[in-house]
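User: I'm new to structure prediction. If I give you an amino acid sequence, what do you actually give back? Let's try with this one:
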Amino acid sequence: MRILLSTYGSRGDVEPLPALGAALQAHGVEARVSAPGDAEFAALAARAGVAFAPAFAPVREWAKEMVNRSRSASPEDRAKLISGQAAEIAARQYEALSAAAEGCDAVVAFGLFPSCAAGRLVAEQRGMHYVLGTFCPIWLPSQHNRPHEYPGHPLPAGVTDNRLLWETDIRTKYALFGEAVNGQRVSLGLTPVQNVRDYVYGNPVLLACDPVLGPWLPSDLIDAVQTGAFILPDERPLPDRLDAFLDAGPPPVYVGFGSISVASETGRAAIEAIRARGLRTVIASGWAGLGLIDDRDDCFEVGEVNQQALFGRVAAVIHHGGAGTTVAAARAGAPQVIVPQIGDQPYWAKRVAELGIGAAHDDGVPTVESLSASLEVALAPKIRIRAREVASEIRADGAEAAAKWLIEWLGRQ
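Assistant: Good question. You get back a string of structure tokens that encode the predicted 3D arrangement of the chain. For your 413 residues, that looks like this:
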């Protein structure tokens, strides 16, 4: 059996797939990961021993262009931008996945909606099985939560029934992605679909997030199989200079925003807020290119680093609230300050606060004062104790559980 694991997105969308691929291969199933062709993502697949097939384009420059084009656009123009990009992604990703799926029996698709749509189309054309996967429960139809609100398509005012709001979500996704999906279908000689959301989602859906951090409450709107997060073990040692910095004083506070293009002022505000509390800083440059603000020896800059090794040695983690960083900090028992920006990040910020393992930064541009207030919450002794308690409850076998489920489910089809 061969399974294609597909995604298009940033590191948080990519790193879990080699973990799942390695778990599948341990059960004798050949796995192939298709993801953006950025060198860092190919390295993840190589580390896991899983074959890698590049998606239609690297993602880093594409994401930067999208941010720049949408930054000053109106909600209506942003909606048009999303639809236009969706059409390009669906068409180009279909070609890439058609090649990557050669000899495969199934496609498991994560990441951006039009990329998943391309995976669904490839599976349909080739008579392959298809499963959608997601890393956060808020993306799935449920009477327990409201759907995501897209630019130019606000949720109707005054409507509190989540079921009705998810009906609205069907129309919103058609407005944003219908032309991309059906344009590709017509080009392949297929008839258009009216409900593009449910066509791409399918049923059941694989929910790859930890049940403590992001619990799934049963819904009669869709069947989700929650397995736990897919965690790729990282045995890489920390760089010698970082290791020496950690040993030279009390645990520092980590600051990193991953692939989110936050302003450089955010990094400066974080360092100054940490210094105001007499603590040291490890700052990750990330895609925003954050770095040191002076030559003082209480701050250390890192690039891509083994978070699994680092987070167990820090006093707290200040980050954007990506699903991967959230679970990495939670597994390490590190208190968190989440400064959410987009997508599912507000959800993870809310969950961290609800669990008592950190603080959710209020909306707005982070300042020294606002970050200092959030740090005061996260560094409280009761938060540290609670974070360690929750760490013992986080599952480490999500990829293994998903691999077993996929093999069993495909065997029944």
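You can read the tokens as a compact description of the fold. Here is one thing that stands out. The radius of gyration is 21 Å.
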